[in-house]
Fold each of these.
Amino acid sequence: MEYLSDPWLAAALLGAGVLAGFINTLAGGGGLLILPLLMLTGMSAALANGTMRVGVLIQSIEAVRQFNKRGTMPFAPLPAILVPCLLGTLVGALAAAYLPEAILKPVLLTTLVVVALIMVLKPNQMTPGPEETPLVPNDSLPAWTGLFFAGVYGGFVQAGVGFVLIAVLVGQMRYDLLRGNALKLAITGSFTVLALGIFMWRDQVAWLPGLLVAAGTLVGVRLGVGFAHRVSPTVLKRILLAMVLTVCLAAAIKG
């Protein structure tokens, strides 16, 4: 395929997959690197958006497996949480799959930059108290609405959705950060199945680049587990912001 004709680009996709998996294990936002980089290879915005979901799905499965092995994956609340998320995902993925390229590309790039800036300049600082009980979405309209719009965002662009989900799960629903992060990964994997199906139906998935990124994310997840307590999330987010801005600018110029 033309997307892999340049060995340097293939190596960049593999390396970006490793870095994305690593970053997502530590904090989140690794998809902010993958989407613009795929666009930089010459893919349309819609094809890159669909292709990225392959790596996200593989990475989410592995991350949930790791959390479950450590006994910190709260499966019980997932069904109630997934209902609004999947409804939102359907809306967002259909919008992304059908929007014209002339509209979709600037919307995606602008969204990525805004999310990256918010991630660095206004990080989520909300932490539940030790005696708080997590809310159930059906008992909290703000939580249900937040999960729905997180699903819309995840279906539309995916990149950076982890921070949206953490804001809802920790900030609104009052899960502790460890279990909120575990739920975030399970939710991401679940709505990625739906979104990926829509993009496959629209023939907007390039499998070889997607699987190359996915292989890298598996390595990144496993590296991130052992490195999680040695890296400053603040420094990592600033590095990520610089890389996102650089790659988005390059993709916009190429466009």
Amino acid sequence: MADQPQAQEFDVLVLGGGSAGYAAALRSVQHGLSVGLVEKSKLGGTCLHTGCIPTKAYLHAAELADEARESEKYGVKTSFEGIDMAKVREYKDGIVAGKHKGLTGLLKMRKVTVVEGEGRLVSPTEVEVAGTRYSAQHIVLATGSTSKTMGLPLSDRIITSTEALELDRVPQSAIVLGGGVIGSEFASAWTSYGTDVTIIEGLPSLVPNEDPAIIKQLERSFKKRGISFNTGTFFTDVTETADGVKVTLEDGKTFEAEICLVAVGRGPVTEGLGFEEQGITLDRGFVITDERLHTGVGNIYAIGDIVPGLQLAHRGYQQGIFVAEEIAGNSPMVVEDINIPKVTFSEPEIMSVGYTQPKAEEEFGADQIEVTEYNLAGNGKSSILGTAGLIKMVGVKGGPIVGVHGIGSRIGEQIGEAQLIVNWEAYPEDVATLVHAHPTQNEAMGEAAMALFGHPLHG
């Protein structure tokens, strides 16, 4: 076209400024490459604005509420007078705004060219934004994900996690559709706020991707906290009533509450962005790549939530860095999804990395697997915190530890050592001989390793 504005050229052009996209941009400029970053909304994406950061702010407020209620048993006299959602939102918004400002400043300082607007792939080397074409030798697709709604019409009573973060009140009762990470975290926070919560999970258990020992402990803990849940039957319908919502299950059972949170997972944002027209393979909206995240078209890569697998911010960071290193010719190491650390920030928290016991038995053979469970009742710091829970290690006989799982208050902080153990393929004796500081919950990691080695100290 004659009136087409002159295209701006980059070494790397990233479509999407969330965790994966901005990580790819930042690492690429560190290699001396010129980088354009296209973002239609706010830099930081879902994680910063409607995901990880704001939900964890709400969960911290929930933790404070629980501590206020229970403080007298520790000899501290406080009173719990309720939740001021306006103040909780203000606190959450302040955290998000500060992080957003910091990220924006960092990208500017690193000289990443940020292009505001919705981008569309128009050739193997070009992205169009508001009529202007931008070209690059390498294009990285990082357009992220959005909450699935299962076709349900959203309203002020039927909401997703995005709307839940903007509520101006504490709901008296709530039905949570989905007992995975998002559903469990919101159920936990709302219960702490004083909401009567029921979780509906179609699969046989809550957090179905976790190890059976962890699932059992979470369900026991949730029951103790008064969180109701119905597992093993999918819902068929959600309707609004005169004063709330009604959820009907496949077996005819019904549940009613003030609001319904749809937390059945997240779908990829790829529709209408020109991917298929350029020959990129999509499966149910996800971009299919090889193990090195290449799409098979030109020099186009895909990263983050649009690539099948775990939808986690830190997986996005890792894939963004990986692709930047790949483009720079550094042949980075592939990190399998199985070895990416995971944390569910409910109360109690869950952390896991590597194989669950059933997956390990399937992969290596049941007779080749040995496991140990260390009960947090034997851990001094856990007793001080008043938490129940466990650390479970899964090892190959005569070989490395291939899975570490834990549940308990604040146990997510132990994921650092857990992921090093699994990713560095440590043997039980390697970890057992390390010194773990006393009194910390981290000692439970050492105790579990000693037990797996066959020489438990306190077990």
